[in-house]
Design goal:
Helix 31 (about 630-660) packs across helix 33, helix 35 (about 775-780) crosses helix 38 and helix 40 crosses helix 41. Among the domains are: about 70-285, Beta Polymerase, domain 2, CATH 3.30.460.10; about 290-400, Four Helix Bundle (Hemerythrin (Met), subunit A) (Up-down Bundle); about 620-805, Beta Polymerase, domain 2, CATH 3.30.460.10; about 810-943, Up-down Bundle (Four Helix Bundle (Hemerythrin (Met), subunit A)). Helix content is about 60%, strand content about 5%. It starts with 5 loop residues before the first helix and ends in a 7-residue tail after the last helix. It is α/β, with parallel strands linked by helices and about 950 residues long. Keywords: ATP-binding, Ligase, Magnesium, Multifunctional enzyme, Nucleotide-binding, Nucleotidyltransferase, Transferase. GO terms for molecular function: [glutamate-ammonia-ligase] adenylyltransferase activity; [glutamine synthetase]-adenylyl-L-tyrosine phosphorylase activity; ligase activity. It comes from Pseudoxanthomonas putridarboris.
């Protein structure tokens, strides 16, 4: 018994004995069920834990018998509510709820269910009671008023949304249920006594609540709380989906985002309800990292803390320090901050959301395990507190005997042992919660830069900026004064202005520590102007000092990324994404990320989502290149992979659109070829895509609209159908969305160039390459590859390409054509001069190297078929070495030169500089190697 007084233990034993005797005296059936010692021992354990279960077992002898027979493995049978037994509906529901709840008590006490199963069982019970009651009431209303029909004649049903723990599937034993009623469309019922939809569903909802909630001699079924509906108690009992949309667009508040995060359709027209919840997702989860969620959480936590202090709720395991609500708030806050970007975090169930936070590295594995253990501990204790007397309580008991009953039921020796375990769990929760909500330090003395900023625009001295480390202090001072007078700054709310006053001095200090203070400041101010109206971005920089420092570092080192961040502030999220400094996505991961955009039904939203994903992925590649975490050549290859996946998605969208308008072409095939840097997998940041379109279809084929389309769709001849498809692809890739355009497209490399058809048939493409194509077009074919479309058609293209490139050629004529074309290009495109070298077009530069390799493929692939496989420069160099056309030393040196040129060009692009570099000895040696190798193979390009 440890330290428990013997008299208290005796009192518990006596309490249990009295309970057993009450059961035996209740009926002969009870006495028969308790005829052996084993049955008595099992029932005694339940009586010690729950007066409620004792009373239910006393009233329902058949329940006691069933539990002793099979330990309640199956839920208790649901009663039938029919028109013949309407007066009995309240009793039937209440007796069912009591029986099923007692079954859950039995299984919990005997260790047959863990806490997760108990929470799921309690949730299921509430859903069953709701659905059973609603279906009975719907039938009654249909008899009296008919069913509600919308203007189109469709039948409308009530949708019951469960919020809170009911929505999350984790309802506690004696909880009320938070409900919100809605219906898809307005209309009127079609019965003898018609009602408008609003009145019909309001009455139906009120009847439902009363049937479940109203106390009778059998108690209650479920307490119903309707206060979370729009406008609370002052709002309508039921709103149409349109009314709900309007409310959340105009009136939705932060606390409602927390509430609706868990929302789930639990009864009525569940399919319609779940569909509408998808449309509410942008209200709950912002598309960007949303640190403003912490402000709402701080306000809610402060209000709860005040309530705890006022009502002396320190021993409340739900609202008190380290309680259940702190775990819920912590998890939900992290979900709201990142759920717009991480689909795995859009989870109603806390027990599932917490591992998802661990998986996305928002919570460490150790913290995740500790919080999950604390949550289950607290929820099990909460259930036992409520099981005792079916009371909606979260307070630890004052009664010594109740404390012993709870402790013994949870297998602790006494109350002190349970209390020690509880205190340890609450302390861990409090620590984690406090770290999340730790207030930003505001008590430190403001530094010189902070004082300077707050004195603007009228006060402040430029000398402060010079002393801090800005080289052009006068220019920086003028820019900051202009920014302080900017209308966007003056229009800020008090809260946002307070954030700016904390953030801007920190940004100034970070600029001073950067590699280019003055450039960093200009770029910081440009970015701030773009984000001032978006409180979430200021909140991100305010709440995350590491993001602020990282931001300034990136702005100082890359004009391109500074420009993109200012144009698309959603990329700020990437600075806090733990993946941005981790392994880069491979092709399969890029494909999955791009395909996720297809979840959007609206074409405009789909394109925007796809572009946002492209921007985010390319930003991660750029960061890796900027930080030197991968070779430049690897960066250009990943950018090409990303373009491939985007083009594939756009092709799917375009095919669907054209098929909707004109049907599909039976037996038709379509493919997209990538030329140039896309084909060679050497795509740069901001590069356009060189695309060529092919199709193949049976002679005389035309599209065939589906029977359902026959009214508006019109058939097209196959050539016109595929031309329409190619036009659609170009238009979609170039369409301007809120996240910019996907890619600029260049289609001039198609057969006959700008004069030719946009899309070529397979036969015409084969004939053109064989009979009319210029040598430079065959050079371009060296780098061409299939990007998207029909696999068989892409295979046919590969065959044409191989036959074309391997065809016999006059070596002298080939050399003349290649040299002449290179001379023309250099004359038109080389921007170098005596002091600076054009990395791409200059003598001995990238294009000279590409021309050399293309020349060798055209000259030698007939004898060396292995030269036909690679499209990329490093792959071609390696193939040349294997074929004996380059020595191992030459190949290695050329590969190094190519890598160096690509790296230097990428660095120029990242800082928005022309690809012109100062001449030096290393560069001269690299150029000389390219020129010398080309000359050794008969190519002497003009210098």
């Amino acid at each position: 018994m440890n330290d428990t007084p013997v008299s208290l233990a005796d009192e518990l034993d006596a309490l249990v004995a009295r309970g057993i005797e009450r059961l035996r005296a209740a009926s002969p059936d009870h006495a028969a069920s308790l005829s052996d010692a084993a049955a008595v021992a099992r029932v005694a354990k339940v009586i010690a834990a729950s007066d409620f279960a004792l009373e239910t077992l006393r009233r329902q002898p058949e329940l006691l018998k069933a539990l002793l027979q099979d330990d309640g493995h199956a839920p208790w049978p649901v009663p039938a509510l029919t028109a013949d037994n309407t007066p009995l509906w309240p009793e039937l529901l209440r007796r069912h709820r009591a029986a099923e709840s007692t079954r859950l008590v039995w299984r919990d006490v005997h260790g047959l269910d863990d806490v997760d199963a108990t929470l799921a069982g309690t949730t299921r019970l509430a859903e069953v009671c709701l659905q059973t009651a609603l279906e009975a009431l719907e039938a009654e209303f249909a008899q009296r008023h008919g069913v509600v029909r919308a203007a189109d004649g469709s039948v409308q049903r009530l949708v019951v949304f469960g919020l809170g723990k009911l929505g999350g599937g984790e309802l506690n034993f004696s909880s009320d249920i938070d409900l919100v009623y809605a219906y898809p469309q307005g209309g009127e019922s079609d019965g003898a006594r018609p009602l408008a939809a609003e009145d019909y569903f309001a009455r139906l909802g009120q009847r439902l609540a009363k049937l479940l909630d109203e106390p009778t001699v059998d108690g209650f079924c479920h307490r119903v709380d309707l206060r979370l509906r729009p406008f609370g108690n002052a709002g309508r009992v039921a709103l149409s989906f349109a009314g709900m949309d309007q409310y959340f667009q105009r009136e939705g508040r932060d606390w409602e985002r927390y509430a609706w995060l868990k929302a789930r359709a639990v009864a009525g027209d569940i399919e319609a309800g779940e569909g509408w919840l998808q449309s509410l997702r942008p209200f709950v989860y912002r598309r960007y990292l949303d640190f403003t969620a912490l402000d709402g959480l701080r306000e809610m936590k402060a209000a709860i803390a005040a309530e705890v202090a006022r009502r002396e709720l320190a021993d409340d395991i739900k609202r008190g320090p380290g309680g259940i609500r702190e775990i819920e708030f912590l998890v939900q806050a992290l979900q709201l901050i990142r759920g717009g970007r991480e689909a795995a975090l859009r989870e109603r169930r806390l027990r599932v959301a917490l591992p998802a936070l661990v998986a996305t590295r928002q919570v460490s594995e150790e913290e995740g395990r500790a919080l999950a253990a604390a949550y289950r501990f607290l929820r099990r204790l909460e259930n036992r507190l409520q099981m005792l007397r079916d009371a909606q309580t979260h307070a630890l008991p004052d009664s010594a005997i109740d404390r012993l009953r709870i402790a013994r039921g949870l297998e602790y020796a006494d109350w002190d042992a349970l209390r020690d375990a509880l205190d340890a769990q609450r302390a861990r929760v409090s620590t984690e919660f406090a770290e999340l909500l730790a207030p930003r330090r505001r008590d430190a003395e403001p530094g010189a830069l902070a004082q300077y900023w707050r004195a603007l625009p009228e006060g402040g001295e430029a000398g402060t900026l010079a002393s801090a480390g800005f080289h052009d202090a006068a220019g920086a001072d003028a820019a900051l004064r202009e920014f302080a007078r900017y209308s966007g700054v003056r229009a800020l709310s008090d809260a946002s202005r307070a954030r700016l006053d904390r953030v801007l001095p920190a940004l100034l200090e970070a600029c001073v520590r950067s590699s280019q203070p003055d450039a960093a400041l200009r770029r910081v101010l440009s970015l701030l102007q773009a984000i001032l109206r978006r409180a979430s971005y200021l909140a991100l920089l305010d709440e995350q000092p590491s993001a602020l420092a990282r931001l300034v570092d990136v702005l100082a080192r890359s004009a391109l990324l500074a420009e993109r961040l200012a144009l698309y502030p959603l990329l700020l999220d990437e600075l806090l994404d733990t993946r941005v400094s981790g392994p880069l996505p491979d092709r399969a991961q890029m494909r999955a990320e791009c395909e996720a955009a297809l979840q959007e039904d609206d074409p405009e939203l789909l394109l925007r989502s796809l572009n946002e994903r492209r921007l985010a992925l390319s930003f991660r590649v750029a960061m890796a290149a900027l930080d030197g975490r991968q070779p430049a050549r690897e960066s250009t290859r990943r950018l090409a992979w990303l373009a491939d996946e985007v083009v594939r998605i756009v092709l799917r969208v375009a095919q669907q659109d054209v098929a909707v308008a004109h049907g599909a072409v039976p037996g038709g095939r379509f493919a997209i070829l990538g030329y140039g840097s896309l084909g060679g997998e050497e795509l740069g940041f901001g590069s356009d895509l060189d695309l060529v379109f092919l199709f193949d279809a049976p002679a005389g084929a035309e599209s065939k609209p589906a029977p359902a389309q026959a009214g508006g769709a019109r058939p097209l001849e196959a050539g016109r159908w595929y031309a329409r498809l190619a036009q659609k692809i170009v238009a979609l890739l170039g369409a301007v969305t809120g996240a910019g355009r996907l890619y600029d497209v260049d289609v001039r490399l198609r057969p006959d160039g700008a004069k030719g058809l946009l899309v070529s048939s397979l036969g015409s493409y084969r004939d053109y390459q064989r009979e009319r194509a210029w040598t430079w077009e065959h050079q371009a074919l060296v780098r061409a590859r299939g990007v998207a479309g029909d696999a068989a058609l892409l295979a046919a293209f590969e065959q044409i390409r191989s036959q074309t490139l391997a065809a016999p050629r006059d070596s002298r004529k080939l050399r003349e054509d290649v040299v002449n074309m290179r001379a023309r290009m250099r004359a038109e495109l080389d921007r170098g001069d005596a002091a600076r070298f054009d990395l791409k077009q200059g003598a001995g530069g990238l294009v000279d190297l590409e021309f050399l390799l293309q020349y060798l493929v055209l000259r030698e692939s007939g004898a060396h078929p292995a030269l036909l496989s690679p499209r990329d420069t490093p792959g071609l160099i390696e193939a040349m070495a294997r074929a004996g056309l380059l020595s191992a030393e030459e190949a290695d040196a050329l590969a190094q030169v190519h890598g160096a040129f690509v790296a230097e060009g990428l660095a120029c692009t990242l800082d928005r500089r022309p690809r012109l570099v100062a001449e030096n000895a290393t560069l001269a040696a690299a150029r000389a190697l390219v020129v010398r190798t080309a000359a050794a193979h008969g190519l002497v390009f003009a210098s």
